[in-house]
Amino acid sequence: MSPLPTTIPELVRTRIRAAVRRPARLTPEEAEARVLLLRMCSLLLQYPDAELAAARPVLTATVEALPPSPAAEHLAGFVAWFVGQDLESLERHYVEMFDLRRKSSLYLTYYLHGDTRRRGMALLTLNQRYRAAGWETDGGELPDHLPVVLEFAALAGPGGGEAPLRQHRRGLELIHRALTDSDSPYRHVLAALLTLLPPPTEADRAAVDQLVAEGPPNEEVGLDPYGTYGEGEFAPPGAFVPPAPAEPTRVPPAPTSRTEGPR
């Protein structure tokens, strides 16, 4: 698109740009396919337990039935690898990629806020968004866990439902880059997801480069009311880690009302 003339007022120029970036309204068929893509991404990014491994024939058939799209091609690439691995290999690779490496962790608010007080507030805000939409998580994961965010996006729709994904676009880019650098097949799932979001801006790319070089913000605080685990790593699914208790306040004893004179 050619640059807008400088004679156009800034307010109009801004609104025109916003309209250009706004996604087109989806047909019912496109909306249904988008929901299925989001749910497939959510499912494939969950821990590969025995139940998920047993569902591989269903996953393959579902991906093959998707309408042709770049996202569907990426998911097909992942599923082709996924169905050929034994359960132990799947579990080991998942833990290595998502539990042991911070640059490919699936907890999105970490990339935006790091281990700071703002992250605790972001988690609370995300939970409030879910509840306002009438959706309650099962409590097994933090609300910023990517499969949880994807499921909410599928249920609530492209507007408010996908807002958390757009907000954490830079974190998603970093996860995709880290998985690509590790040559992990999970890069295909992130690539599929990114095709559903608006393209990154130059500012997004610069911010991702800065995240790679410097890491997220850091601060020696807990994530009240979610707590911390070990030496700052994320708690495993289903674990509730209460925040560390504060030091007791020591108050000197109050003087007695009886005054003793000299003996």
UniProtKB/TrEMBL annotation:
GO terms for biological process: chaperone-mediated protein complex assembly; nitrate assimilation. It comes from Streptomyces triticiradicis. InterPro entries: DMSO/NO3_reduct_chaperone, NO3_reductase_chaperone_NarJ, TorD-like_sf. The keyword Transferase does not apply. Residues 239-255 have a biased composition (Pro residues). This is Nitrate reductase molybdenum cofactor assembly chaperone. GO terms for molecular function: metallochaperone activity; unfolded protein binding. It holds the Pfam family Nitrate_red_del. Residues 215-263 are annotated as: Disordered. The keyword NAD does not apply. It comes from the Bacteria. Keywords: Nitrate assimilation.
